[in-house]
């Protein structure tokens, strides 16, 4: 009877409890598409983590795999270079909805990133063949595909790059 009463209470009138999740990494969405299309790139913020204190029913938090909690920052609203303070959205695993869990406390409610201009440069790919072909074997002409790489980075990082070299 006690077990049935406990199950009834958990389902009908769930008890709210809290749990801590430390070092949740921050992910960025739209960085390779939206930001790149605007000629922008993230220069910092990749190593950002947030400590969370989550609140929800005991059953929901019991199902929660803390290692699978993610924080996603949408970069679609970034329109220019400089320091940006962005909000994150928590993503919970196991089909747990964002309405079933609330963030009671967080080490940070926003993520600060530095945004810079994205430059691109085309460089040829060269092949450096080393060694000799053993007796009884032959080589054909090396075909490089792609023959040109498009590099994207900060301007200073691209200044001294003139080619991509593959050693075979």
Strand order, main sheet: write it out: 6-4-1-3-7
Question: What series of H and E elements makes up the topology?
Answer: HEHEEHEEEEEEEHE
Cα-atom Rg, whole angstroms? 25 Å
Straight-line distance between termini: 74 Å
**Fraction in beta strands:** 35-45%
Number of helices: 4
Number of extended strands = 11
Structural class label: alpha+beta
Q: What's the pLDDT, averaged over the residues?
A: 89
Biggest pleated-sheet summary: 5 strands, mixed
Shape: elongated
Oligomer: single chain
Give the fraction of residues assigned to helices.
10-25%
Unreliable residue runs: none
Write up this protein.
With 168 residues, the chain is α+β, with helices and mostly antiparallel strands. It is 17% helix and 44% strand. The chain contains four helices and eleven strands. The chain has a five-stranded mixed β-sheet with strand order 6-4-1-3-7. The termini are far apart. The mean pLDDT is 89.
């Amino acid at each position: 009877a006690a077990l049935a009463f406990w199950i009834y209470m958990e389902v009908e009138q769930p008890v709210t409890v809290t749990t801590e999740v430390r070092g949740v990494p921050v992910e960025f969405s739209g960085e390779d598409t939206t930001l790149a299309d605007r000629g922008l790139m993230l220069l910092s913020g990749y190593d950002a983590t947030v400590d969370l204190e989550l609140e929800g029913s005991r059953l929901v938090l019991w199902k929660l795999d803390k290692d699978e909690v993610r924080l996603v920052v949408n970069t679609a609203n970034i329109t220019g270079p400089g320091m940006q303070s962005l909000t994150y959205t928590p993503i919970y695993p196991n089909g747990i909805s964002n309405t079933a869990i609330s963030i009671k406390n967080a080490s940070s409610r926003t993520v600060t990133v530095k945004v810079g201009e994205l430059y691109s440069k085309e460089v040829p790919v060269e092949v450096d063949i080393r060694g000799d072909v053993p007796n009884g074997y032959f080589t054909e002409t090396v075909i490089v595909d792609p023959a040109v790489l498009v590099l994207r980075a900060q301007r200073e990082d691209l200044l001294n790059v003139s080619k991509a070299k593959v050693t075979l």
